Amino acid sequence: NISSNKSKGGFSSESSLLSIIPWSVCAIQYLLVIFWMCLLLTVSFLLLDVIVTVL
Predict the structure, then answer these.
(1) Is the pLDDT of residue 32 over 80?
(2) Burial letters for 9-39: b for 16+ Cβ neighbours within 10 Å, e otherwise?
């Protein structure tokens, strides 16, 4: 019983590490999405400025 408990503890620690990795990946993906949204917004504003100046 003791040996099985030890193996379970090892698996739980490994699973916690594995659970942290996807969370960081999701956070990076969210940051990338926010970055691209900001980039698209700035580009659209620049295009609007150019269109207004041309008109």
Answers:
(1) yes
(2) eeeeeeeeeeeeeeeeeeeeeeeeeeeeeee
